[in-house]
Amino acid sequence: MNDIPNELKDKNILVTGGAGFVGSHIVDSLSSQNNVIVMDNLFTGLLSNLEKSKDRIKFVKADILDKALVKDIVEDVDYIFHLAAHVGYIRSIKDPYYDMEVNIKGTLNLLEACRGSRVKRLIFSSSAAIYGDVKHLPIDEDHPLYPKSPYAVSKMAAEKYCFAFHKVHGIPVVALRYFNIYGPRQDTSEYANAIFIFLDKFRGKKPITIYGDGEQTRDLIYIRDVVEANILAATHPAAVGGVFNIATGLATTINQLVDLIRQVSGYEGTANYVPFRAGEIIHSQANVEKAGKVLGFRPKTSLKDGLALTWKELTKREK
Ligand SMILES: NC(=O)c1ccc[n+]([C@@H]2O[C@H](COP(=O)([O-])OP(=O)(O)OC[C@H]3O[C@@H](n4cnc5c(N)ncnc54)[C@H](O)[C@@H]3O)[C@@H](O)[C@H]2O)c1
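^ thats the input. predicted complex w/ nicotinamide-adenine-dinucleotide below
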């Protein structure tokens, strides 16, 4: 469980997308000491993700595109964690219009609702996807933005709207650019990212597919550390108006990841190597100095520990 600073106690907190993977963990952290409202249309979110907090929160099944309702809810809110989104590059290619609506217009609804409100801080969940083609490693926040999918474009636009509203209307926003997050409640659907898919395949004792030689790298961060970053972003005085990479700063190859999954699952598994997919990002590694210096953010969970916790939770579901 994360430590909660006094500023985040006895407050009215809105978590959009709070029934999703990341949002539900933020809800669990904050719900025992605050009045938490979760707004989620359950597009991908699940009520079961809110099992731990359900008796302490107010759940509103609603769409972030419902402008009037968003305005109504925001009126009495002190802090907003904005996670509601149409998530992922494959989904966005299938339906770029809906992706644009939810990610851009939904964020705009929230920002408009914040104008003249008592909101102390809006923490926007952004994505490292907005960097697109890597120009230098490790990727710092000044790295150029070359979004390569409709999803990445919509997240970038939403982030830019946040800062435009910060400049024009003084809305106290913070954007967190997450790299690859993993942990319990992760999506194991066809839209999931590699780490989710690997764990699920190992659970089902099925072979995994690795694109390329497995030497491509990712910066993988455990969910509890991401919750910690959100808490720091909400409370640190120097966070307002800032954008921060949220990652470990460590590059892990897919082969190393699979070896660790073998260790935590105790299952050898089979990996089939196939050619790279077009457009695949080869290396990703964040520069996390800014989050460290400004927010005091230090990820605490090693990949092996995080995978073990995730594996335990994933396999518990079947027992
Ligand atoms: N998981 C990652 O590795 C990662 C990486 C980078 C950025 N992010 C960002 O973090 C946030 C949370 O991602 P996640 O992995 O938890 O995904 P998720 O799909 O589990 O969560 C998104 C939530 O938003 C809800 N939602 C979708 N459309 C909505 C709408 N129109 N109105 C209200 N609610 C709606 C969904 O039902 C879901 O509960 C997203 O903004 C995503 O872009 C996630």
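The CA atoms of residues 24 and 313 lie 15 Å apart.
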